[in-house]
Task: structure prediction
Amino acid sequence: MARTQSDRSRKQERLEARLTPAQKQLIERAAALRGTSVTEFVVVSAQAAATSAIKDFEALSLRDEAREVFINAILNPPAPTEAARRAAERYKKNMGL
Result:
């Protein structure tokens, strides 16, 4: 994908890293196989890894007792409150149901 001058000029932050020779060779080979520069390969790969790490961290994961409480609430929901009943009626009325 071609980058325009405005895309390049917006990039103002810099990131540096120290690598072993083997790491550098590996990254250079991967970038060449993808047909990109080492910089572009590193930026795209780091962005994908960061997005994945954040998604994994923010995903709902329930363990042990929390899982049991959640499942029980889904399978045996509490009766709706009066406010919930009124809201449901307003919704039905507004939606013509």
In short: Residues 90 and 96 are 10 Å apart (CA to CA). The chain has two domains: 19-58, 64-95.
